């Protein structure tokens, strides 16, 4: 799967929707199930869930088996970890706590091959189909073009720097993180649904600036109706926390079954 199916769908004006997998972080069976259900991608969690390279490889393999792709959230721009994730078949990196243009630049440099970046050559990697189907030069060109680079905007101090981040060559856009934004601003704001107005104001600012720059916005939605509202606002990438999604299904089933 050299071509990133998300880029193709977004180019056609289609939104893409996928779960981030924290509670059940490394189950290939779950990935196959979600792809078969119709989701467009899964996000492997190398930050909170601590999925390692071996786990990411199996998740990427499962995603490809049902025609979708796997992205990965990482805790920092460590080029060694990012390289290993990409060579395993991950097709996009989301950098947690992306607060400055320097953070965005470090992400892009880790993802791209020279001369733009520092990604090491590995013409026989799993992502390159073990050296078959494309020359080393062709592979580098394709991966540079297709692999996604997104920054997770989840701290107030990131907001004034969003414009500078969006000017970084190869930086595709922003993932809007209201949870940590609320926790950083004021613990009392954390967990409010909908978000506290002070939190929402910052999230909206990052969203509007990113969309105005023609870049990608990824945002979370806990329900189908919330996802529809995001899509109607112009957001191209929707993410749902799998645990939130699954808990709602479990709670609804049990309450109905028990007449509660």
Describe, in short, the structure shown:
The chain is an alpha/beta fold. The chain contains eleven helices and eight strands. The chain has helices spanning about 5-10, 30-35, 55-65, 80-90, 100-110, 135-145, 160-165, 180-185, 195-210, 225-230, 240-260; strands at about 15-20, 40-45, 70-75, 90-95, 150-155, 175, 215-220, 235-240.
In N-to-C order, the SSE pattern is: HEHEHEHEHHEHEHHEHEH
Largest sheet: 8 strands, parallel, barrel
Structural class: alpha/beta
Q: Helical amount among residues, as a percent range? A: 40-55%
Would you give the CATH topology? TIM Barrel
Tally the structural domains.
1
Overall number of strands: 8
Describe the structure using short key phrases.
45% helix, TIM Barrel, eight-stranded parallel beta barrel, 260 residues
Overview of the structural elements:
The protein is an alpha/beta fold and 260 residues long. The chain has one domain: Alpha-Beta Barrel (TIM Barrel), CATH 3.20.20. The chain contains eleven helices and eight strands. It has an eight-stranded parallel β-barrel, surrounded by eight helices. Helix 7 links the parallel strand 5 and strand 6. Helix 2 runs parallel beside helix 3, helix 4 packs across helix 5 and helix 8 packs across helix 9. The mean pLDDT is 95.
